[in-house]
Amino acid sequence: MDQRARALAEKHFGISRGELLVGGIPVTALVGKYGTPAFIYDRKVLDEKLDALRRALPPQFSICYSVKANPNPAVLRHILSRDCGLEIASAGEFCQAIRAGCPAERILFAGPGKTEAELELVLSQGIGEIHVESITEAKRISEISRRLGVRANVAIRVNPAGEAEGGAMRMGGRPAPFGVDEEILDGVLDLVLADPSLEFRGIHLFTGSQILDSSVLVSQYRHGLGIARRVAQRRGQPLRAVDFGGGLGIPYFAHESELDLASLRAGLAELFAPIETDPAFTGTKFLVEPGRFLVGEAGIYLARVNDIKVSRGKKFLILDGGMNHHLAASGNLGQTIKRNYPMALANKLDAPPEEFVDVVGPLCTPLDTLARGVTLPRAEIGDLFVIFQSGAYARSASPLGFLSHPAPPEIWIDAGHRGVHQGLAKEQRNELSNLAIQEHTSFEVVSGLREEWNGLVHSQKLGPAQSYEWLSTLWDLHKTNRELLILVVRDEDGITGIAPLVRETERRKGLQVRLIKMLSSFHALHGTPLLLRRRKPETLKLVFDHLQKYREPWALWFTSYQVGDEQEAQLCSLLRERGYALSTARGVRSPFQRLEETWEDKLKLLQPRFRTALRSREKRLRERGKLELRFFDTDTQWEQGLAAIREIEDASWKVQAGTAITEQDFQWHFYSRYAPIAARSKTLRIPVLFLEGEPLAYDYALYEDGIYYLLKTSYKSKWHDLYPGFVLRKLLVEWTYAQGGREIDFLGKDEDWKMKWTSQLREHRDCFIFGRNLAARYLHGFHKLRNLLKPQE
Ligand SMILES: Cc1ncc(COP(=O)(O)O)c(C=O)c1O
User: What is the pLDDT of residue 338?
Assistant: First the structure.
């Protein structure tokens, strides 16, 4: 067996009865559960590497993990828990970092060719630092920052003049797309320093990857310090940060040996000792951004031997995975001569080497060779083949789409005091998609979204009051002294959520406070704080973070939600996580009735007295003359329907009570404007009960997706004794059953007449979320005090 493989198995993982263990679990058991091919990452190894690196670095150093090496969410979460920041190279990685829980200010963005959209996304989210790679990029960052009204923290990535020796992949010292050539650094620096939208923080050097010679690293850092000193002098003050990049290597091949951390430590200690008292570096933070060194050794790749064949005297083991999962091991990434990674038969570690074989993957290309001429124990179909040193640039740098095999699962093993935790980082599947947020301040601008908007509302069954048409009609009536703010969050697959918001200033407790309301809160049927379709918790978070950071700070957010609704839980957990204070008040309890039985059975379920009353009242009314229920629902009828409503309302008891629809301008305006829209979409229902041609009672309702939404109802008071409202209700409940409807939503409060029909209620809660500025704290303090002084019930 390959001695390097055996040494790695013993050093990091363990062997039992000839079988490789990870976290004490035999790998056959792990793949028995998760299948092959698979990657396995061991938390313990990662920690050992991180601890070893920390010991080698001078104490002034901090570590930012380079996400490109392995963006697995479990890996990111763990590294974040160990007090590291993250270095990213794309919007996709940015989103992965955020999703893993990384605060935006702990993220650095390096890499050539950042697009406008990427820069806009990260700047709008408050990224910690962007590493400028060219003059064009500096100007682009400045322009976007100005547009967003933010100041961008930038460092300049320098492509040093001296050749950096010893790395397998050199990224400095010669013509390169990475960074700004040291020779023109002064000019770029002056440009950045003069730009008020850019906050210059320091320099970044990254000169190579896979460096195994500590003296090369020390000499690179020395060179970096020299550049930093010159920049500090030109600027006239010390730099905030000097970033030496990653590049620390791990041994893959027989001729390589481990990076000597003891001599790295000694070399850096000597180099940085005088820095402590050097005024050119007062307050300067030093940083490295390793990827490979931290995660490379923590990962293994496992694939099963699926076929064994001999061709013209040469034996091939054919695995169920290959370069599509592990391009690097096939020698097609960063190698000029194909060399074999440390590898073995994971279930035959103690068996003697017997055969000389090539190990290949299942792809139709001779490039898909994982091992050429390797000596292994005699293999059988079903054996497990392991490739060590596979935690970095393995899955993340492979053409997963090539030949359309499934992507290999990744198993995270965390063996601790409380046993072994194992699991798949399932979110991985969607990791590459990113979320972006756009702001709009008028409905006209988003009219192009109408279809997508309504599609979202429909697919999530949010009901008519969240439709584009309902909300834009509502906005038209509530414009005065308010601003509209529609936030649209999307990823590559389309809209993930919409926040239709309104901003206004209100006087509260003697203070002018900025307030955010859901537009729907002016006339919602049910509380639905945001319109969410997919990736709901992240979308919610993005909306709040965006408003907190990039809009003027708001003191109060008002919305209402349904108790027990999915969004209640998401909202509350977000508020806890982000540290917002919340106050809630009981909202309306609105009755609804699911139509699960037949109308005949429903009648039997009603209270006997109520049932008898229904019958007798309808009969009495019918005895008075011709009783008719007519619907005014279409494009040509809605105006007649509204005329009947007006006539009934003018003669209704609600006029005295002040709740008649025509008395409250807003409602009349809203419903009359909405009627033709609803008629066009065929959801309008205006049933009117006529007696001898005289309208007695009406409903203004919407019928959508099998649900009868009862928005408004009334009757003429002079007919009170004949109970026209009562009879209308009976006819309409019956009508809904006859339509094959699913539900009658009585909406509004739990009034007695509704509760005769149902006992089902939707509870709502009104909620105030306190922002994080001074005004909000003051209001929250006031609120707490009032609660304290309130007599205890
Ligand atoms: C800017 C930058 N930082 C950090 C790294 C991580 O390098 P390594 O994994 O060799 O430590 C890379 C790798 O390409 C990089 O480009």
Answer: 81
CA 66 – ligand 1 centroid, Å: 6
- The pLDDT assigned to 34 comes to 76
The alpha carbon of 249 and the centre of ligand 1 are apart by a number of angstroms equal to 11
For a substitution probing ligand 1, which of 65, 66, 158 has the most ligand atoms within 8 Å of its CB?
66
Rounded (5°) CA angle 153-157-162: 155
In ligand 1, the atom with minimum distance to the C-alpha of 131 is 1
CATH of the domain at 630: 3.40.630.30
User: Do 320 and 382 have their domain in common?
Assistant: yes
Residue 793 is predicted with a pLDDT of: 44
> What is the number of structural domains in the chain?
3
- What's the pLDDT score for residue 426? 41
> Does one domain contain both 690 and 726?
yes
For residue 245, the CA-to-ligand 1 centroid distance in Å is 6
- Assess contact for 145 and 136: CB atoms under 8 A: no
Angle, CA 120 vertex, CA 581 and CA 106 arms, to 5° = 55
Domain-embedded: residue 421 = yes
My answer on whether 677 and 784 are in the same domain is: no
Query: Do 650 and 779 fall within a single domain?
Result: no
Q: Per the domain annotation, does 74 fall within a domain?
A: no
Last residue of a domain, one of 408, 429, 450: 429
Q: Does residue 66's CB lie within 6 angstroms of at least one atom of ligand 1?
A: yes
- Closest ligand 1 atom, CA of 248? 11
Backbone torsions φ then ψ of 686, nearest 5 degrees: -120, 85
695 and 606 share one domain:
yes
Query: From the alpha carbon of 249, which atom of ligand 1 is closest?
Result: 10
pLDDT in tens, 243-295: 999 999 999 998 899 999 999 999 999 999 999 899 999 999 999 999 999 99
At residue 427, the pLDDT reads 40
Asked if residue 604 and residue 538 are part of one domain, the reply reads no
In contact, 637 and 683? CB cutoff 8 Å = no
Nearest CA to ligand 1 atom 5: 246
pLDDT of residue 660: 62
Strands 38-42, 61-66: pairing is unpaired
* pLDDT of 310: 96
Range of the domain at 676: 596-741
Token representation of residue 343: 């590898």
Residue 200 falls within a domain, yes or no?
A: no
C-beta of 231 in contact with ligand 1 (< 6 A): no
Residues of the chain falling short of pLDDT 70: 1, 162-173, 416-434, 492, 524, 550, 653-664, 790-793
- Whether 384 maps to a domain, the answer reads yes
CA–CA distance, 311 with 726 (Å, rounded to integer): 88
pLDDT for the residue numbered 666: 81
